[in-house]
Amino acid sequence: MLMELPIAMLACARIGAVHSVVFAGYSSESLAQRIIDCKPKVVITCNAVKRGAKVIHLKDIVDAALAESAKNGISVDVCLTYENQIALKREGTKWKEGKDVWWQDFVPKYPTTCEVEWVDAEDPLFLLYTSGSTGKPKGVLHTTGGYMVYSATTFKYAFDYKPSDVYWCNRCTADCGWITGHSYVTYGPMLNGASVVVFEG
């Protein structure tokens, strides 16, 4: 739950790329299941995060998931990794040349704006998987038009949002790995032009 997560989600939406956010608390096996199912070209992660005082090595989890996916015939071309210096320095991160790319080295080379890729209302926006607690995780495909109207409307009325408000959302109540984080950290507030404070810790 770093700022780069909703930034990446919104960037995907702008260029018409389907994204699938996976909760950072999942194991490498759970992540591999989702990679095998949706067959992404790129995985975006950060090297590590802190949960309280504990460091979670996300890049290690992603590496294990990518190795498992490759055994099942699904190979991912690029792993774009954000260096989260608060949790782990770059030098302490395991690295695979040719596949791994640092966010900080790659993203700033490109313009901060781009033309919008216009899509149809029924074109896919994102794929979000069920937890898998009742069997194999199922990917739920959310389409652009219906989801945008839903998230904009429910944000506006459920939170009684007014243009003068500053909206604060605790990551624990709306992690971007779940639908609430998609709707009430990222898309709903942005569609209403809301000023948002996101707690990363």
Helices and strands, with pairings:
Elements: H1 4-15, H2 28-38, E1 42-46, E2 49-51, E3 54-56, H3 58-71, E4 78-82, E5 100-102, H4 103-106, E6 124-129, E7 139-143, H5 144-158, E8 166-170, H6 179-191, E9 195-199
Parallel strand pairs: 1-4, 4-5, 8-9
Antiparallel strand pairs: 2-3, 6-7
Helix pairs in contact: 2-3, 5-6
In short:
The chain has 201 residues and is α/β, with parallel strands linked by helices.
Tell me about this structure.
It is built from six helices and nine strands; from the N terminus they run ααβββαββαββαβαβ. It is of the alpha/beta class and 201 residues long. Strands 1-4-5 form a three-stranded parallel β-sheet. The protein has a two-stranded antiparallel ribbon with strand order 2-3. α6 (179-191) links the parallel β8 and β9 (195-199). α2 packs across α3 (58-71) and α5 (144-158) packs across α6 (179-191). The longest helix is centred in the C-terminal third of the chain and has 15 residues, at 144-158. The model has no long low-confidence stretch (mean pLDDT 92).
